[in-house]
Design brief:
Elements (H helix, E strand, L loop, with lengths): L8 H26 L2 E3 L10 E2 L9 E5 L6 E5 L4 E13 L6 E9 L5 E3 L2 E4 L17 E10 L2 E11 L6 E6 L11 E8 L4 E6 L2 E7 L6 E2 L7 E3 L14 E3 L16 E3 L16 E3 L11 H4 L6 E3 L1 H5 L10 E3 L11 E3 L11 E3 L14 E10 L4 E9 L2 H29 L3 H18 L8 H13 L4 H21 L22 H16 L11
Antiparallel strand pairs: 1-25, 2-5, 3-4, 4-25, 5-24, 6-12, 6-25, 7-9, 8-9, 8-24, 9-10, 10-11, 11-15, 12-13, 13-14, 16-23, 17-22, 18-21, 19-20
């Protein structure tokens, strides 16, 4: 009997790796048969995807590998460009029959400071669009995916729905959507639409948001309009008195009330400090300054040396004419006003009467338009955004299988590489801690009752990400912000009631710049009002 040959360990591991890879490919192949649509970008997109020929969309799409992998994707190759590309489906996909799963991968290889990485699921071309003219006005049924810029940091889910009464299409935005992961790794985004009106948003297979299409708590504006609306033609009566308090007409100003008394008076008890330099000016000519050689008295005027603080004043208690300091006048009362009393004619805050909403309707399920194409229409300041493994399926198990076979192996490799790089830099523990801190802070910023303060919180978080050595300082700042908000909530008091008219028409975006403009105007006024002090040119 001959001696049995031993198979080398390395060769055995290679065979095992090939077998596992073949099994994953076999599973992906089997899953592809079950998918309604699947795009792996293993082959070039040219001839299958159509880039928009509109003038605004100059961004160049490329078929390229994901960094560190042999896996190809659709790459955003240039910064600060608009991109638009579309792929028509073989047959329209109905969103009304059973479960529908929308899933795709993105990798922000150079990060994402300002831009989008979302997909649009377009209605049939009969709705009024052409592939070569695809743009931001092309009608879609669903828009889904990451978007980040300034105060915006969210994974959008927006659906357009036709109001059966008015015939208008209205955009409905998911309230409090999850945040975009802040790293440069591959991530997979999944939206599961259930026949019971449930929506689930997953990131990397983990549920981040659950909503109901018919709930007014989950979408803005709500899918089902209010039954009544304020009457736009109703007018407030002329004799309607909204003043809860009025001045007491019977009140009389006290005899000892002096309206002319100043708020501040000189402190008669103050004495001039010993050693005060009455004859010394507070500023003197800079003795080291010299007139520039190119100074022309006729063109530039008479040259004057720039002023500096008088060093004698710094050594002594003070310079110049001494004046007594001011103090609060104990007799000051200001202008007298009659005290306020309850208004006997007060009728409350007026609001228009409610009338039936002509656009009101009821339904049991959203009347989604079918999906006939998948488009990517974005504007971004970053390059390196890679799209891959776009999937439409009718079973979330199929989507899970794709995540396991296409996304997870890449993510695992990228995660291990990230850990190795952090370890080599000697900051593994600190960097890992910082990453967890920032991820937690982004989640905290998504808490609904903090929505009004998102901009301030995001600004602090982004500063911390750019300067990781300031993590502790950033944490302290954010704790102060949270504490301030908490105090205002607990002790802020009640706000006066006011009337607001509801607007049933959706707004896709709104930028309130009045505050910034007011600040700028204020600064300009202050600058123009301030006296200018002439300074001499210094020789360089």
């Amino acid at each position: 009997m001959g001696e049995r040959k031993r198979i080398p360990l390395g060769f055995s591991l290679l065979l095992l790796l090939v077998a596992c890879s073949s099994f994953q490919l076999l599973r992906a192949s089997e899953d592809a048969d079950d998918a309604i649509f699947y795009e792996s970008f293993d082959e070039t997109f040219e001839g299958r995807w159509i880039a928009s020929e509109k003038d605004d969309y100059k961004g160049v799409w490329k078929h390229d590998k994901s960094e560190g992998h042999d896996d190809y994707g659709l790459l955003v190759s240039e910064k600060a460009k608009k991109y638009a590309i579309v792929k028509e489906l073989d047959e329209p996909v109905s969103l009304k029959d059973g479960t529908v799963v929308l899933q795709f991968e993105t990798r922000l290889q150079n990060g994402l400071e300002c831009g989008g990485a979302y997909l649009k699921y377009l209605r049939p071309q009969e709705a009024g669009w052409k592939p070569k003219e695809f743009d931001n006005e092309s009608p879609y049924s669903i828009m889904f995916g990451p978007d980040k810029c300034g105060a915006t940091n969210k994974v959008h889910f927006i659906f357009k729905h036709k109001n059966p009464k008015s015939g208008e299409y209205v955009e409905h935005h998911l309230k409090f959507p999850p945040s975009v992961p802040s790293d440069k790794l591959s991530h997979v985004y999944t939206a599961i639409l259930k026949p019971d009106n449930e929506l689930r948003i997953l990131i990397d297979g983990e549920e981040k948001k659950k909503a109901n299409f018919l709930s007014s708590e989950d979408f803005e504006p709500p899918l089902i309009p209010p039954q009544t609306i304020p009457d736009p033609d109703d007018k407030k009566p002329e004799d309607w008195d909204e003043r809860a308090k009025i001045p007491d007409l019977n009140a009389v100003k006290p005899d000892d009330w002096d309206e002319d008394a100043p708020m501040e008076i000189e402190d008669e008890e103050a004495e001039k400090p010993e050693g005060w330099l009455d004859d010394e000016p507070e500023e003197i000519d800079d003795p080291e300054a010299t007139k520039p050689e190119d100074w022309d008295d006729e063109e530039d005027g008479e040259w004057e040396a720039p002023k500096i603080d008088n060093p004698k004043c710094e050594a002594g208690p003070g310079c110049g004419e001494w004046k007594r300091p001011m103090k609060r006048n104990p007799a000051y009362k200001g202008k007298w006003h009659a005290p306020l009393i309850d208004n006997p004619n007060y009728k409350g805050i007026w609001k228009p009467r409610e009338i039936p909403n002509p656009d009101y309707f009821e339904l049991e399920r959203p009347d989604f338009e079918p999906i006939a194409a998948i488009g990517i229409e974005i504007w971004t300041m970053q390059d390196g955004i890679l799209f891959d493994n776009i999937l439409i399926a009718n079973d979330d198990k199929i989507a899970e299988s794709y995540r396991e076979t296409t996304w997870k192996p890449k993510f695992t490799i990228e995660k291990e590489k990230q850990k190795a790089e952090e370890s080599e830099s000697g900051s593994d523990g600190l960097a890992g801690f910082q990453k967890k801190v920032f991820d937690l802070l982004y989640k905290i910023a998504d808490i609904p009752f903090l929505s009004a303060h998102k901009l301030k919180i995001y600004d602090l978080i982004e500063k911390g990400e750019k300067q990781p050595n300031l993590t502790i300082g950033i944490l302290v700042s954010i704790v102060v912000v949270f504490f301030t908000i908490f105090i205002r909530i607990i002790f802020g008091g009640k706000k006066p009631a006011r009337v607001e008219r509801k607007n049933t028409e959706p707004k896709e975006s709104s930028n309130n710049q009045s505050g910034e403009e007011n600040e700028e105007n204020k600064e300009e006024e202050e600058t123009s009002a301030a006296p200018r002090r002439r300074t001499a040119r210094r020789e360089t």
